[in-house]
Amino acid sequence: MKLLQNKKIKPFCILLIFTRAFPLPHPSQEVKATLNSQDDYEQKPRQLQCTSLNFRDFQFAQAMLFAIEEINNSSDLLPGVTLGYKMYDACGFIARSVKVALTLLNGNDIEALPADACTRPAQVQVIMGETSSSPSAAIATAVGPFHIPMISHFSTCACLSDKTKYPSFLRTIPSDYYQSRALAHLVKHLGWTWIGAVRSNDDYGNNGMATFTDTAEQLGICLEYSVSFFRTDPPDKIHKIIEVIKSSNSKVVVAFLSHMDLDVLLNEFSVNNLTGYQWVGTEGWMFDSQIAAMDKNRILDGAIGLSIPKAHVSGLREFMFNVKPLNSSNSDFTDMSLMPIFYNVYKGVYAVAHALHEILNCNKTCDINILQHLQRIHFKTKEGDEVYFNENGDPPAKYEIINWQRSEDGILNFAAVGLYDASLPSSQSVVFLSLDCIFMQLPVSVCSEKCPPGTQKVLQKGRPVCCFDCIRCAEGEISNSTDSVTCVRCPLESWSNENRTACIKKEAEFLSYKEIMGSLLTAASLFGTCVTVAVAVIFIKYRKTPLVRANNSELSFLLLFSLKLCFLCSLTFIGQPSEWSCMLRHTAFGITFVLCISCVLGKTIVVLMAFKATLPGRNVMKWFGPTQQRVSVLGFTLIQVIICILWLSISPPFPSKNFKEFKDKIILECSLGSAVGFWAVLGYIGLLAMLCFICAFLARKLPDNFNEAKFITFSMLIFCAVWITFIPAYVSSPGKFSVAVEIFAILASSFGLLFCIFIPKCYIMLLKPEKNTKKNMMGKGAPK
Questions:
Q1: Predicted TM-score (pTM) of this structure
Q2: What CATH architecture does domain 1-22+50-173+312-375 belong to?
Q3: Of the N and C termini of the chain, which has fewer Cβ atoms inside 10 Å?
Q4: Where found in the cell (predicted)?
C-alpha cells in the first residue's frame, strides 16, 4: 500500500490452473508444439513442449489473457497498476493441482516469470480455476484456511457452495443445485416421468444427480436406473451401462456428464448403435461443438438440455484468432461455441480487478483482505451484464434450454428453445419459446400411461410410484383431473355421471301425477269418488223405499260421505310432498277411515239390536236408537281426532329427502315424525275394523232379507286382508312405491266397502224393483 501511495507501480499476480498440458504464448507468438514426455516438460519449462494440446483449455487461457490485457490498458480500472499472472498445468490430476497451489502458498515458484512481468517476488492474490469440480474442491480445501480467493469459471458442483468447507471459493458459473432442479422441472414440463440417468462418477456428477433425484421425486418423476461412469473406467463398465440402457423401458436418458466422460462413452454408444433415445443434457456438454462433431451416428440428435446463456465479448474473438499459426488453420481453435465459458473467465478476472481497485482506493483503515472485497463487489461489464456473488459465492442462476436440431442439409444447430430462471417460482421457471420448434413428435417415456379423469391411481405393489394402475372411481365418486390419486365423493344431493368425471344433481323422485302409476291411481281415486256420488244419488232418489229405510238411511248417507272422503284423501299422497300435504295426508286418511268404520260398526250394531228387539220381553232398541248411533259414530271419530291432534302437536309428519333407498336418486317423501303416532292411527283403525268384523260375523246368520250383516262381514274381510298385507308391503317398498302401496290399500279397502255394502242394494233398486218392498224385506211372499 505504501508503494502505491508513492505513485509507484505495484504488480499483482493471478494464478491460473488448467487441467491439461499446453503452451502459453503471447498472442503475437507462434505456437510450436512438440510431443515430448511430461518429465521433459517439467525439466525444461521454458520450451514450448507438451504431451498433448487441448484447444479448449487453451481458449480459456486466452480469455484470461485478453481480460488482463484490457485491464492493464485501462485508465479507469487500476490505473498505474499492472496485473501479472502465472499459469500452471494440472495435467488432469487432482494431486498436481493441489501441489501447484500449495507450492505458491509457500512462496516458491514452480516456474519463473519473465523479468518484466513482476519486479517483486511473486505475490498471488487470487487463484483462477479449476475447470472441473473435483480439482476445484481439492484446491479450495487447501487454500481456504489462508483466505486465498479461488474463482472458477466452470466448476458447477453444488457442494462448492458450502462455505464451511470452502470459505474462499467463488465462481462465475451457476451452481449445479439450480441446474439439477432446472433439469428436473424441464423433464416434468415435457411430461416424462419414467427416465434413466447416466452420471460422471465425480463430485460434478454425483452431487448433481443427487439433487436432481431429490427434486425429481418431489415432482413425481421416477428413475428406472442411475449408473455412474468415469473416463478411466474399463471397457466392460461401458458395456454394462449400454446393457442397462437397452434393457430398460424408459426412452429418456438424463446425462449428467462432463464432456470428457461423454467423449469416451459416445464412441461406444456409436459402435453399439444406441439410437432411439431422448437425451437430456447439462451445460457440461449441451453446447459443446466437439461433442457434436464426434456424434457421427447421430446418437444425440434431438437432445435437449441446459446451457449457459449465449454471450459476446467484443474483441475476444479477434484476440484469439490472432495467435499464429492458428489464425490460418482449420482446427478446433476457431470454434467459438464455448464463448459463454470464455465470458465466465473474463468476468472472473474483472471481479478481481474491481476488488483490487476498491482496496487501492480506500484509506489506511480499509480492510485489505481481497476475499471480503470480492464477496461484495457488484459491477457491470462492458457488455452490460451484472457481476456479483451471493452469500454462497454463486452468481445468479439463469440457463438457456438448448435443443440439438439437424437441418435438411445435415448441419447440427444448437437452437435456443426456452429459458430457465431460478429466481422465478417453480411453476414459472421453465419458459419455452415454442414446443413446435423442439420435436416433430414429443417422445413418451412413462412407466404407466396417465390416468384419465374418472379414474384414480393405485400403485403397483413393489414398484416405484410412477408405476400404477388406473382404477375407475366407484359410484358416487369422481375425479375431474388427470392422474388423480384419489376419487372425491360427491355431495349428498349429487351423484357421479356415467364417466365419473363430474357430480350431477340427483334426480328428485316422488309419486307424480304425470307418471303412469300416479295417473292410474289418480284415475282410480276419481272413479271411486264418482261411483260413490252415483250411489248416493241413487240412494237419495230411492230414499223412501223400504230397502233404503230398512238399512238405516242416515248411517248409509254418512257412510257414503266418508267413503267419498276416503277416495279423495288418497290424492293427498300424490305430488311433491310439502309441509301441509304431509300433515294432511295421514290425518285425513286416519279420520275419514275411522268415520267410515264407525258408520259400518253402527249399522252392524243396529242389525244385532233389531233382532234382539224382536224377541219377547226385549226392548233393546231404546238403548241404540238414532241418537245413540250418532253419538257412537261421533265418539269413535273423536278419539281418532284426538290421536291426530296429539301426533301433530308432538312430532308431526314433515317433508324429507331420503338418500338411502337409491344411490343416484333423492326420494322426496313424508317422514312420519312420530312413528308412534302413525301406528296409533293405524292401530285404532284396525281395532275398530276387528270389532266391526266380529259384530258382523255374529249377525251373519240372522233371518230376513234386509239383513246386510253378511255383506258387512265380507267387506270387513277384504278390509282386514288389505291392511294386514299392507304392513309388510309398506315397510319393504322403496321410495315412491311405499306411497303407492298406501294409496292402493286406501282405494282397495274403500272399494271393498262400497261394492260389498251398497252395490247389492243398487242392483235391487235399479234392476229388481219388485224386491224393494216391505213384505220382501220381512221375508214374506217374496217373488221368485
A1: 0.62
A2: 3-Layer(aba) Sandwich (3.40)
A3: C
A4: Cell membrane
